Hints:
The complex is a heterodimer of chains A (about 475) and B (about 240). Chain A is an all-alpha fold and about 475 residues long. Chain A has helices spanning about 1-15, 15-60, 65-75, 115, 130-145, 150-155, 155-160, 165-200, 205-235, 240-270, 275-285, 295-310, 320-355, 365-375, 380-405, 420-425, 435-440, 445-465; strands spanning about 75-80, 100. Chain A has a two-stranded antiparallel ribbon. In chain A, helix 2 runs antiparallel to helix 5 (about 130-145) and helix 11 (about 275-285) packs across helix 13 (about 320-355). In chain B, helix 4 (about 115-125) packs across helix 5 (about 140-155) and helix 5 runs parallel beside helix 6.
Amino acid sequence: xxxxxxxxxxxxxxxDGRLLTLGITLLVLFVGFFLTSMYELQQLRAEKHSVGTxxxxxxxTQSVKNPHSAAHYGIYVFKQDTPVAALDPGLRPYIGQSLxxxxxxxxLTRFNPAADxxxxxxxxxxxxxxxxxxxxPLLIVALTFNSVSQERESGTLRMLHSLGVDAGxxxxxxxxGLMTAFSVVLAPALLLAAVxxxxxxxxxxxxxxxxxxxxxxxxxxxxTFAALAISASAYxxxxxxxxFCLLGFxxxxxxxxxxxxxxxxxxxxxxPNASQFWREIKDDIDHGLEHDGDHEERAKAFEAQVLxxxxxxRKEDLPVGFVSLNRQHNxxxxxxxxxxxxxxxxxxxxxQQHLSHLxxxxxxxxxxxxxxxxxxGMDLAHQxxxxxxxxxxxxxxxxxxxxxxxxxxRGTERKATGEETDWRSVADFSYQAPNIGFxxxxxxxxxxxxxxxxxxxxxxxxxxxxxxxx
Amino acid sequence: xxxxxxxLAAQNLVVEYRQHRAVDNLNLQIPQGCVYALLxxxxxxxxxxxxxxxxxxxxxxxxxxxxxxxxxxxxELVRAKLAYLPENVALYEVMSGLENLTYFCTLANxxxxxxxxxxxxxxxGLQADAHQKRVAAYSKGMRQKVGLAIASAxxxxxxxxxxxxxxxxxxxxNDFAQRIRAAADRGMAVLMATHDLFNAKQVADRIGIMKNxxxxxxxxxxxxxxxxLEQKYLAHARGLA
Lengths: 470, 241
């Protein structure tokens, strides 16, 4: 029986002028936004590659100079976005796109696109992900709000009831039929997007898996909306009441829940402001972490340890450059403090992300958006992974320059030099983005929330079926 | 009229909605081959009686029986033994008459070949050129014919009609009445709620008049003339009886 219902719902939905009109409108919107996003992504990737190559070449071609002075020239590194970011740019507008690596200090990323936007840009911020996560659920609401109430109003529900049709099979048949019709309308847009992506980007297996999983969770999300809409349509007596309630739910899920979640997270787990953050790092370095002693005490202890290690009584008599050695020691401490503070800050970001799900009781959109940006590699966790890799690279090339400085000087002299062959010997920053397993582990709370909503919607559909009266 | 055990029966049936007694101690029996017309004004309880047989509502007391069994205890009875035609036969507008027939029959576990489906529609009076047209373009009479085809396909023991000729032109109403009579002659028990005295007299074997939920008079349709029927009906409607 359910196959017959699915087939009928599928055909009826396809023949319904609403699906065609709304489907074509959304297809045009989707393709428009997607092409814009893809163009932006291509431009950004090309710019990052070009600037990165230029910056490294400028590093490579530095003149003969002190290795530490060369290190102060610094290196810019960039995170390359995955092709899936064309579907969901995630936090890109709000996160700095470049990271300047320099001695002594670990920097935050700079130049977030949102800060560079002209005022008019604020009015046109709809993206492909907005179509996928906000407008398509609205299409589902528009298609399903009267799926049962219309049958009640027209009398077909009484006809079905008189035939002894099982209400559960009727509602689940409607759900599956509608989702099949919806997929048929959505498929050309997604297929087109996939072909364009494959034609314009080098797709790895991991990219393909991320895209597939994103499509899967989007379908779960749409299924949740459809099941809730059909339940509401079965529960309320009129199509008008159902539509009002569903529009309210859509607004709450898409617009209010993320805002509520963000505000709750900020209240319950506030971030330090920038000046406080940097002041605390400076204080930790100056005064030392617990049991480490202050800067002066640490410097004295280190000097004594070095003199003892080399069996000399004065720094001037050391067979290696003490200035560099001391700097490395100070930098190592700075790295330790920076790591603690950066990790604390980013752990708080994670805490905030989890707390933001306090808004998820209003709808599944918050969880889906978070999951989507994680799968696109455009979330905080992927950013943290990149920044950690960049930090490793910073330590690598700073230590290398310090090694040259230390080995090419003696005592307290500052005469060590390096030349182009040295600078060229510094390896390029080669960042390996984490795989989909990392993304799924990161998004496990989002996934859980989404599955809970799906379970709830299916449960409500079952309850509605039990209560369904003609 | 056959005197064997009834196909449809109401025994001391009471149906109440929020303190309002819509059907009050109704007793009736409809045997095989009998067309029973329930007459009465709006709110008399006719449609509620039909809805109770269809299990759309539950009796507050008493019971309805289909071949001696309660449909409220065995919902499968409704699907297996009843056909239902409301005032406005509800069909899916975006589907053709043929598709509607096939869909409703499949849900009732009746598999029809294309030939059988066309034949049922033709037998019900729907012209062949209308079979593939979407129902949105059908008149009320054409929808009734699709409804009849569904009822015929079910080979139900009983048919429940709720104001079936309301809004039909005289020719279509007459055509419809003949088809109902033919169904009864093939052995179907028919319970028909109607305002249409002419139609009731034309097609029914027995007539019951309901008022305020009670069956106030019941008689053999063949023993009354049209005028007499009209007088009885109006007398009850005006509270003169």
